[in-house]
Every structure is written in structure tokens, then in C-alpha cells.
Please model this.
Amino acid sequence: MKTDYGNDFYLVTPMTDLPPDPSGGSDSKPEPGQERASGLRRSHRGPYGTRQHSQHSQRARGKNGDQGVDAPAGSFQEKKPDGNRSSHQKRSHNKSGGRRSGRYDKRQSAFGAVDLGTNNCRLLVATPQAGGFRVIDAFSRIVGLGEGLERERRFSDEAMDRAISALTVCSEKLKRRRVGVFRAVATEACRLADNRGEFIDRVRDVTGIALDIISPAEEARLAVGGCQPLMDPNKKYAVVFDIGGGSTEVVAAELIGNGTLNVVAWTSLPIGVVRLSDRLGGELDQPQYDEIVTRISLQVGEFAAKLGWQDNLARGQVQMLGSSGTVTTMASHQLGLLTYDRSKVDGAILDRMTMREMSRNVALMSAEDRANIPSIGLERSRLVAPGCLILDALLKPWDITELRIADRGIREGILRGLMKLGRVQGTHTGGTAS
Model:
């Protein structure tokens, strides 16, 4: 069976640099376990004393008021029945119409990061500690926001309800933990949906959270920054990939010392586990699997070739890190864990070819057989198959022996940035496949 991807996976729109300089990563996941805030210029307090950072950029609005991809987020605000601003909100505006940030102690304040993806809604709350942070609360729920989006280009009412329900939990946790500063981002699904403006408004009205729809470039930066603490300082170069529900980011970076990463190149492939599952519509057979892996891996190989890192690869100076639910699930399976144990998975180093072989075997199993694997289970069995296909394709082109597993990503990238831990920078070339 041939799958039509149109012009997917081509590197287009060369970029000279990323948005202002958010940075990225350390510590954790839903069980108690970094983006730079330059470029996050607007921040102010809501009625709970919470400051919300948002990307400072122009937004495009359609005739119906839909927000553009980089629409700045507003405050974390309490919904008033009459739609009027609270007295606190009125006080927070100065005479010129700007907003005052107020004072807070970074060393004592809790920080929050919300990541609304195509399939999951995730939250981390943490406090700074020497060289990193300590997670004091976390939340993760499968919401399926992007289900049907590939066909309809719109969020369904049911998907929006699920996401808002999860974000309501996040909002309550942020208040309960007295979070001083937080950032909430949305990724590929919100970049694609024609009714994203309606959804963003509903989220703000119901939960008080103003979602910041980030660009693929910033998503790539946050993902690599979130993985930064796992990087081997003895290897100067790193390839990091993050398999999402709606897109997959691949980032090449150079470690230049002093906690700084220099992004050399990146690409965002418009394929993720939810989008690919919607396209496939059922079980994979081997010819179909091989065809799709080949097509994706050719485009990743093109990205690798443009890096010109052949000598670095030959000297063993390139490390590879993988982040996503698929990667951690397959790592847990390879390690033979009956229940997920983050302490054993995060940072684990596994053989690349073994991961490829295992990914193929799991993807070609029946859904029932996948569900019987302890590390997968019934809930994950449907999306693990397309995830394994993408993982195999990402690993195929690289002459790298090992893969380091990262149970961390965008949320950790946000936290590190808000706490100013590490730095991700770089004049580089990147692109988003069309």
C-alpha cells in the first residue's frame, strides 16, 4: 500500500537565526523529577501573583479573530462572569497601557511549564536548586487534541473539551503551588488547526491560561535545551530528535562550553504519531512499513548530509539523544522493565541497531500483542506502531553506535530558560517541511 505524503519531509525556508534566544533543559517527567526568557519580553502578574511569560512577537489575526502562530500570550487571569477585568488587572496596567511585572525572588519562587501537544497535555512545577531544579509537582494526560486534524484541519469539540479539562487541572496545580512564573506553550496541532483562535480563547476564558503557540524553530530549541544536561561534554556535537504527536524535530548542536549549546541546524518534519496514525488508519504490513521508513529516512539523510559532519562522525565525536513517549516506551521495553521507572530510563544508553530492530518488530505486531507488552499496554498500543516507524527512520541514516534516552524535553527547556540555566544560541540553517 502506497501512502501519499505530497511534498512532505523536504527542508525548505532557510533561516538565518532562531527567535531571540530562549534556552533549554534538566530534570523530569510526570512522576516527581529550561527556555531562556530573553525573547519572552511580556510578563505580568495575574490575581494569584503568577507571572506568565509569552513570546514577544507580532501576531496575525484573521477576519474571525484567529490568532497567528506566534500570537503572544496574555496573563494568567481569573475569568469574570461579566467579562470585565478584575480590579487587580486594572491596577496592573500603567498609564501608557503597558503592564508592570512586579517583584519576585527567583531563588524562592516556584516555576511552571505547560506543554500542550497534539496528543498530550503536560505540566511541570519546579523550584531552583544548585545547577538545576527540583520538581515539586507534575501532571500528564493523553488528550488527543489532534485526532482527526489531518482530515478536517479543525479541532473537534470533543478534543477541545478534553484538552481544556486537562488544562484546568494544570491551572489548579499552578495556583495550589503558588507558582511565581510560568509559561504555557502549544505546538503543531495549534499551528495547523483553522479554529485555533476559538480554542485559545476558550482555554483562556475557562482556565486563565494564555497559550503561546510557538514556532517549529522555538519548539526545536526548547527540545534540545531540555536535553542539554544529559549531553556528554567529551563529545562536541549532538543530534537530538523529539517525536511528537503532530511533528518531529531534529536538531544538530555543538557544545561550546560554559553551559552553552550552539544550534547548527534543525528541521521540523510534519509527521508525528497522531498524524501518521490518522493517515495509516489501521495495522501496518511490512511493505508499507519499509516504504514509509525509506521515505522519511531519505529526508533525514539529506539533513545529515548537509551538516557535513562526516569527519566528526568518523572520530566518534557525535552523540545522539532521543526524546518522546515512543523513545522512553521502547527503552523501557528493551530494558525489560515490567513497570516504567524513570530513574532507569532517563539517561540510559542503548544500542542504536538494537533499537531499530526492536522498533520494527513492535510496529509489525498486532495491536493485541503490543498491548500485552508491560511497558506499552492497551492505552499506548495504537500510537506506538507509528512511533516505532518514525523512530526506526530517524535512526537509520546516522553512523552512530549508541542512542541516549531522554525522558525530558520542552517542559524542561522552558524551566531552564525561565531559571536562566544554560543557554541555547546559534546562527544556523533550518526549515520546516511543507
Observations:
- The CA atoms of residues 241 and 322 lie 5 Å apart.
